[in-house]
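Morning F.,

Quick status update on the modeling queue. The single chain you submitted on Monday has been processed. Sequence for confirmation:
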Amino acid sequence: MHTEAENAVKNGNFIHMYIQEDLGGRPLQTRFPPEPNGYLHIGHAKSICLNFELARRYGGKCNLRFDDTNPAKESDEFVRSIQDDIRWLGFDWGDRLFYASDYFAQMYEYAIELIKKGKAFVCDLTTEQLREYKGSWDAVGSDSPYRNRTTDENLSLFAQMKNGEFPDGAKTLRAKIDMGSPNINLRDPVLYRIARIPHQRTGGDWCVYPMYDYAHPIEDIIEGVTHSICTLEFEEHRPLYDWITGELAGENKPRQIEFAKLSLSRTIMGKRSIAELVAKGVVDGWDDPRLPTISGLRRRGCTPSAIRAFCEEIGVSKANSTVDCSMFEHFVREDLKNKAKVVMVVLDPLKLVITNYEKDGESFVVENNAENPELGTREVTFSRELYIEREDFAENPPKKFRRLTVGGCVRLKSAYVVVCDNIIKDSDGNVSEIHCTYIIDKEDAEVKPKSAIQWVNKQDAVSVSARLYDSLINEDGTKNGDALTVIPNAMAEKSLEDANSEDRFQFMRIGYFCIDSKYSDSQKLAFNRTLPLKNSFKTVST
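Structure tokens below.
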């Protein structure tokens, strides 16, 4: 046993205990089986990390398999995005890329085997009748009047279904298990339905498609999966999984293990809900940074290492719970604080003129990240006219205001101390300029600034846009109408002019940001705020 796996058992990861009971010398084989009907979200990231890391720890393999059994909702766009997201997270499936559609012919033959064993039959009940005959959790179901068809009749009808001789919905192939079972999933579940929908990979070759609950265990059998690790909603489906693998797998049956899915507060989880937001134009696509999709988190500036560390920390359990989003944000901040270059940007520029500055200009050497000296230094230019953040000046300061006021002083980060002498207002009475003098003698004991603020040289400032993202849901569960604020004309230091797509920065005293390739162009860079420097809301217990 690998040391990492031993530690996982000690830490209470029940999946490792099951694996060690089961393997008996067999190599571990897991799989990540997304349906290509949407983009992956952070809940899927938990499953990706779990399956690929289990394979790594036990020296096994993890397949990437697309469960593309419902062509009405699937597309190549989703297939590509899923592969991109998994690679970005840092995982590689090697040559083990599979599709359920690869196995359609084998699945059909397995269905024939079930018919020959008297374990499946063709049923003519309509969808409404199927629902009525199935019963409920409180009432047992009733046998279909077509349940006792002969083997030859079932084989002939199933072949006719495959050959397109019946209209859509006219017939289904059902397993013959137990209509009196307390588990509704064992009440003669549908295995195949007729649907004349072109498939993105097989075209019009098939007009019958397997149901997921039938296809999934068959895929595991064919691929030699040892452990099929699913989220808790499949727990009630496990008896059907075991029935199918018991009938068809032989000695090396895969084992299904369920764990609690990830639920994150203050956001919208679930592909159906996200798809609805996309369709209604509430967000600007599956990769909108307000969404918990992996591509959205990537655009927002989150790092794959932060996501992996978060998934490792929350672990796996059998109990559903909600993780506060502040915990996820903590991992993102911890990862970025040593990686992001700290730069000076002002979101709401206010002009500052140093009236006694007589030089043409100068440069100052500034550290890129005080917590990580390996990121080096850079030069920033300085001149008589600067921009500062408007909120760093107050004409009538509130109590304990520590920044610039008339007659007060502040230090310009890595440069001089300035004293505000007077202000200029526009026709609307708003402050448009601050006039200051700088303290030439830095050792002047009478001037003691209480804070330092960021600034940008007006001569070579770069105009950028900034998009401030927040959670979609407020603490009280209501929709957050301020989940996006667009700032069209922020001012940044010149070094950002050469930044590249997805580069990450800390805007000094503001937050973490990254370049957004979707809204950046040759004329202006666009930045997305990943997170404020600290939580902007109170955490809630769950």
